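#lab-general

N.A. 3:47 PM
ok so I finally got the sequence cleaned up, no stray characters, all 644 residues accounted for. can someone with queue access submit it? mine expired

B.Y. 3:52 PM
send it over

N.A. 3:53 PM
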Amino acid sequence: MSPAGQHPLLVAQYLRLREHIPALYGVLSVNAAILAYTHRGLAPGPLVLTVPAILIAICMIRMLVWMRPITATDLDPALVKMRMARVVALAVALSVAYVSWALMLDRYGGPDEHGHVAIFVAVTVLGCIFCLTFLPLAALLVAVAVLGTFLVYCFSVGSEVSIAGALNITLVTAVVVKILRDYYDSFVSLEVSQRELQIERRQAQALGEENARLAQTDALTGLPNRRYFFATLENLLENAGPDEVFTVGLIDLDRFKPINDTHGHAHGDRLLQVIGSRIKAQCPESAIIARLGGDEFGMIVMSGPEETEGITQILCKAIHEPVRIGDTLVSVGCSAGLAVYPETARQADLLFDRADFALYHAKRNKRGQSVRFSENLEKLIRSEQAIDAAIQTADLSNEVSLVYQPIVATDDLSPIAVECLARWTSPTLGAVSPEQLIASAERVGRAREVTLLLFDTALAALAQLPPSLRMTFNLSGYNLCDAETITALLKRMTDAGCDPSRLMFEITETSLITDLRMADRALRRLRETGACIALDDFGTGYSSLSSLHRLPLDMVKIDRSFAARLDESSGRRLITAIRNLARALSLECVIEGIETENQLISARLAGFTLVQGFFIDRPMPLSDLLERFSDLPGQESTRQTAAE
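B.Y. 4:20 PM
back already:
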């Protein structure tokens, strides 16, 4: 704040005085000249020429000083205070000098000249008081000095008329001083009110600016928030030139949710704060990075995809650096999706959706990398849209079915269990993969219906299988987080009267990432019936050890990608280590994807007792499966029971 702003009332007085002081000196000069003129032939020359000339010269000089243009220096409070004090002193001195000179002229002339002197005194005192309204001390001192001198003079002369006139002038002056004092008090009150109003406005403005800033800032990380991100994107699109190119990106943390669930939300928040600080430190001037919510961040980079990919790599490297929170050292990765303007889209929602789809593709297929939206992804989107449209009107009871793939013992290839695998044959699209079926069902809200329909089919098939065989049934992350689906599964198990120990529910590590706590709760409800739990695709996720330690598991199924490495010594050592880990935790272990005899032999040599794969059997309909197992003990009685 400027010095003037620190003393607003003092400066306001000074500015008002500047408007009136020149008039004060003008009144004194004109009155003096007129009084000298009326006494020119009566009083001595020095009194009518020399004295008024000196007084008028002083007034003219002071008038010119007060009339010069004002500068910023003139508003310095210390200088203003000094000038105000000088005004008080000069006002008293000049008024006394003028009155003393007038009273000296009163000795000359007749009644008219005496009356002129009295008028001169009255006009002088009233003029000075009016001009000094905004300096009450000076006005009061002038009134006291002038009227005091005049009263003393009148009483010394002894004329009743002079005394009466002096008293009248004094009375009028007192009233005028009172009125002007009230006016000055009103001026002070107004200035104070205006000052307070200005302060309130500035505070309101500052508060508004602060609220606006807070409304656009993420409270946890200090980064811009979702509102700021989309406002900036919309503004860019509105003002984008014909040749302008920029990139919209989405970054999502990998492995954050297991850390958040395992160590608690306080640790998760602290991790996000550290990551936010790293992002701010690494963010170039050409980029805007915002936290959109949870563990997702958005960025707008004023350049093409190549530069953006470079920035993304730098950010991902910074994010991946381990973070110590308390006594715990944690680390997360990240995946990113990019969409380029105007190549990909020209609207904010489409740009964001395309970047989001590219991110989704990265997390499913290229985790830990950045994926740029392309024509291939556009075709995939259209394919998903077609699947979603088909499943919304599909007669699922007639279009969805199950096939079964055996799980066998490595020593004699005797069947131990069968895995249920979903199949959907659409009248309009043809065969649709199980992954697309489940993903589309979740998107359109038919996931529970599909799961329960398949489970009914599985229970009916289980009743026809030999009692020695178990059946595994796959559950998605959506199923695990839907308590009503779990309740419906339990009810169907009870109604079917099946032996729960013959059922095993398979889950994948990626399905656990959605909500580990809810998944754990759902699995324990299923396991309490006597059913078993298997962790499928083990080794491809990011929470393997945590999953093995925390979840109520009975079996792990090693992903098929490891089977191809059974012919390598390093691959066998790795797979043997996984088997030993499972054995130490008292878990059954199945290796999937056995496609050759050599792989089967290597699996047997590595100590695996259970295998599954195309070399053993391909997935088959129930009729083929029953024929395949027709010679198993108990199969005949099972057929009779099923027929009855």
